[in-house]
Amino acid sequence: MFSFVKSATNPNFPIIKQLPTTASTTYKIGDALVLTDGGLTQATGTTKPQFICAENYVAPASGMKDISVYEIVDGQEWETTCAADASDVKAGSKVTIHTDAAQVTATTTGGVFMLLSAGGAVGAKVVGKF
Q1: Cα–Cα–Cα angle for 130, 13, 101, nearest 5°?
Q2: Is residue 32 within 8 Å of residue 112, measured between CB atoms?
Q3: Apex CA 130: angle with CA 87 and CA 13, to 5°?
Q4: What is the pLDDT of residues 20-37, one digit of tens each?
Q5: From CA 65, how far away is CA 112, in angstroms rounded?
Q6: How do residues 90-130 score in pLDDT, each as one tens digit?
Q7: What letter would DSSP give residue 93?
Q8: Beta strands 39-42; 32-36: pairing state
């Protein structure tokens, strides 16, 4: 789960927006998301997220509602956990987003989340920015 830590710019908190969802998709607080083809989807791997999910919602096959998301902007720092052992990953490295869209991996090829602290063992908390 990605959670807001702080911002080096104004405003000092993430902006909340209401955006459309994608049919038959489950959204969880803290998921990394992108807006594509008219709806929000999970951002995983080398896809750089645009938003972090701010509410839990299971979208039905039709009649979906908009959900609350935090917009990711330059200068923000986010905290999450390592889905894999990232003990050898150094601060300043960019890592990819895990397939659950809520954690980071130890993979640096094509990374989109720059660690501001060294990586750690599975489950270790890390702080970084997109």
Answers
A1: 40
A2: no
A3: 115
A4: 999 999 999 999 999 999
A5: 29
A6: 999 999 999 999 999 999 999 999 999 999 999 999 999 99
A7: -
A8: antiparallel
